[in-house]
C-alpha cells in the first residue's frame, strides 16, 4: 500500500516513459518523483519496481535493437539487464546515478549477446561490411520503384551503421539515440573520456568512409532522412 | 561496480559537452582523423539521430516481459540477498492431522471460509513440508479486493473492541475476554525478521487450563508482503520442563496482504505443571514458515530461525469465564 500511496502522491510516476526523451538520464521536472520511485525500487516495493521497469525496459530494448540484436534477443537482453540491476541494487550508492548505472548493465548485456551471436564481426569487419548490402537485399533493392531516394539513403545508412563492429556501433547508439555525453559513455563503457571520444570519432570516420565508398552518399551530400 | 560515482549532475554533463565544443577545429584524434567539426560531420550526426529515432519509434510493450521476469524478481528476495527458498512440489496442506481447526463457537459458514487459514500445530520440528510450487503471479485485482476486505474486517474488529496489537482470538470466548479485560496476560512485543517475514509475539498467558500465545506475522519484502497467511509449519516451543507443542490449536485471521499482518492465537491446552512453579521460561524456535494466499494454491516455504525467549508467570488459578467455558483440549501429562 505504501507504494500505491506514493504513486498517488506523485502522478508523474504513472506517466508513460515514452513521453520522455530516450536518454533522459537526469529527468528534468520530476526529480522528487524519480527519487521516490527509485527509493521504492531499491526497497523492493512492487509497484515501484514495476514502474521502474516500465520506464527503463523499453529503453534497454531499443538500445539492443539499434545495436543490432534481433527483437527476441533484444527483449531477452533487456530483461536480463533489469534482473541484474535489481539483484545488485544494494551496490548502487547514489540513486541519482541509476539511469547511467542501468545503461551500463544493459550495454554489457548487449555486448555479451552480440559477441555470442556474431563473433565473426569482430574478426573481419571489412569483409562483413562489404557483403552486408548483398545480405540484405530487401533494404535497398526490393521494390526500388517505390523507394524514395531519402528512403534508400536511410536504409543505406542503417546498413552501414549495423556493419560497424559493436565497439563502434554501440557508442554511436549511446551518443545519438540515448543522447548521452561523452563522459557518460565513457562511464558506461568503462573507459576513459579520451578513449570514448576517440572511439566515437573513429566510428564516425569509419561510417563516413563507408558512405563515401558507396558513392550514392557522399559526405558533402549528407544523408537526408 | 560497488558504489561507483557517476556524473549525474546535469551541469557536469553540460560542461563536458562544452569542453568538447571548445576543442580546436583542427584537433586531431589518435587515429589521425580530423575531429569532425565541419558541416558534413554535423549532418551525419543529425542524420544518425534521426535514423535512430525513426528506428526506435515503435512502442515497446512491457506486460509480457514483466510477466516473464516477475517470478525471478520474487525469487531474488530483498536487498540483503536473503533468498527465498524455492518452492517445492507437493500438495498444499490445509491443516495438520489430528488437531482441531476451529472452536465450536464458529459457524459452519465461518469454518468453511476460514478453513484454509486456520492450521493446527506441527507436532515436531523435523517434518519439513513440501508445498505447491506454482509460479507466482501478482494479481492486482485480487490484491485490491483483498485490501478492501481487510479494511472491512479491521473495521469490524475495531468495532467489536479487538485491538490489532493484541489479538484475542475469537469472539465469544469468555475466558479470553476476561484475560484481556483484567489484563492477566503478559505483553511480549518481541519481533524477529528473517527471509522477509517478520514474526512478532504479542502476548502470552499460562494457567493449568491453557497456554495462550498471541502473535502476528507479516511479509516485509516485495517477495513476501503479498501473502495473506504465514503458517508456522515447524517450530519448537518449550519451557524449562520440556516441549510444549505436543499438540495444540491455532486460530488465525487471514491477513490483508499488501504487507499487512496476519494475527493468530495459539492455545497449547493445559500444561499440568507442579504447584511450585511460578514462572515459565519459554523458548520458541520457528524453523519453517509457509506463505499462502487465500483462494490460491500458490505457496512458498521459507526456512529460517526465528528465535524467541521470554519469561511468563504461571497462573495457578485459571481465569474462568462467566459461563465456565471448557478447556479447548484435554489435559496432558508431561
Within the CATH hierarchy, at the fold level, what is the topology of the largest domain in chain A? Rna Polymerase Sigma Factor, Chain: A
Task: Output the CATH class name of chain B.
Answer: Mainly Beta
Mean pLDDT of chain A: 71
Number of domains of chain B: 1
- Unreliable runs of chain B: 1-36, 78-138, 155-166, 322-334
Sheet bearing the most strands of chain B, described?
A: 5 strands, antiparallel
Residue-averaged pLDDT of chain B, rounded? 64
List the keywords:
heterodimer, A: 225 residues, mainly alpha, Rna Polymerase Sigma Factor, Chain: A, Arc Repressor Mutant, subunit A, 2 domains, disordered N terminus, disordered C terminus, B: alpha+beta, five-stranded antiparallel beta sheet, rod-shaped
Task: Offer a quick outline of the entry.
Chain A has about 220 residues and is mostly helical. Chain A is about 70% helix and about 0% strand.
Secondary structure topology:
The complex is a heterodimer of chains A (225) and B (334).
Chain A lengths: L1 H8 L21 H13 L2 H21 L4 H17 L10 H20 L1 H5 L1 H11 L1 H4 L8 H15 L2 H11 L5 H8 L3 H22 L11
Helix pairs in contact in A: 2-3, 3-4, 3-5, 4-5, 5-11, 7-9, 10-12, 11-12
Chain B lengths: L9 H12 L17 H17 L7 H14 L31 H7 L25 H20 L14 H8 L4 E9 L2 E10 L4 E9 L9 E11 L2 E2 L5 E4 L9 E6 L11 E14 L6 E15 L21
Antiparallel strand pairs in B: 1-2, 2-3, 3-7, 4-5, 4-8, 6-7, 8-9
Structural notes for this entry:
The complex is a heterodimer of chains A (225) and B (334). Chain A has 225 residues and is mainly alpha-helical. Chain A folds into 2 domains: 1-117, Orthogonal Bundle (Rna Polymerase Sigma Factor, Chain: A); 121-218, Winged helix-like DNA-binding domain superfamily/Winged helix DNA-binding domain (Arc Repressor Mutant, subunit A, Orthogonal Bundle). Chain A contains 12 helices and no strands. In chain A, helix 3 (46-66) packs across helix 4 and helix 5 (98-117) crosses helix 11 (182-189). The radius of gyration of chain A is 20 Å and the shape is elongated. Residues 1-30, 119-144 and 216-225 of chain A have low confidence and may be disordered. By secondary structure, chain B is of the alpha+beta class. Chain B has a single domain (69-313), classed as bacillus anthracis domain (Immunoglobulin-like, Sandwich). In chain B, the strands form 2 sheets. Chain B has a 5-stranded antiparallel beta sheet with strand order 1-2-3-7-6, with no helix packed on it. Chain B has a 4-stranded antiparallel beta sheet with strand order 5-4-8-9, with no helix packed on it. In chain B, strand 1 (186-194) and strand 2 form a beta hairpin. Chain B is rod-shaped, with a radius of gyration of 29 Å. The two termini of chain B are 58 Å apart. The model of chain B is unreliable at 1-36, 78-138, 155-166 and 322-334 (pLDDT under 50). The interface between A and B is large, with 72 and 60 residues.
